[in-house]
Amino acid sequence: MSVPALARAPHRDRPALTALGEITLTRARAHEACGPARHMLALVLAGACTGPVLWIAPAWAPARLYPDSLAGRMAPGRLIFVTPKRAEDLLWSMEEALRSGAVPLVVADLPAPPALTPVRRLHLAAEAGAATGAATGRAAPLGLLLTPGPGGAAGVESRWHMAPRHRRDTNEWQLERRRARTAPPRAWRLSERDGRLSLHTATTEPSPAP
User: What is the pLDDT of residue 176?
Assistant: First the structure.
């Protein structure tokens, strides 16, 4: 009787953070959010998870989260702010936070997209944090890189772009999944009315990934 050289292992879905039913980001990996409304997307994801959220931003950056908008998305007490004074400490802080597995979401507001090697280090740190957290029942950590313009961080698990498309009576945004390892590009229309967010398939195709 011949013995097969390869055996097909059963497929297991990797744990993911899901917001509004359709926005899905794989945990234990680093993702990128770009575009003028990237901070809004980060708050949507923060509101979809439980536990503390670590938000890393340069000490010299003039912009800060608007408190009223923040309170409408999540409990402000869940946010822990880290403001490094040196550029090299932004990704170092994120890497160490992911490796610890202490928080489910680590956001880093960066002045420019990082190169491939730092992103690979973030993936490895998130995987290590997932292993540490599994022993204590914590959710695997997820890293979210906020980058200006069209983004372009090399090696990220997925890249999302979000921009405002507000109308007179409704707050609206165009959300695009421009790149993902396990899903095709897709676009949505995110709208807010009476403080409630809803997601709809967009009629326009997502822009090509850079």
Answer: 97
Residue type present at position 96: E
At 83-139, the pLDDT tens digits run: 999 999 999 999 999 999 999 999 999 999 999 999 999 999 999 999 988 878 889
Nearest Cα to 54, choosing from 17, 90, 88, 18? 90
Domains of the chain from N-terminus onward: 20-160 (3.40.50.300)
Tell me, letter by letter, the H, E, C secondary structure of the chain.
Answer: CCCCCCCCCCCCCCCEEEECCCEEEECCCEEEEECCCHHHHHHHHHHHCCCCEEEECCCCCCCCCCHHHHHHHCCHHHEEEECCCCCHHHHHHHHHHHHHCCCCEEEEECCCCCCHHHHHHHHHHHHHHHHHHHCCCCCCCEEEEEECCCCCCCCCCEEEEEEECCCCCCEEEEEEEEEECCCCCEEEEEEEECCEEEEEECCCCCCCCC
Average pLDDT over residues 197-209: 74
pTM score, whole prediction: 0.89
The pLDDT of residue 66 is 74
Q: Which pLDDT tens digit goes with each residue over 13-45?
A: 679 999 999 999 999 999 999 999 999 999 999
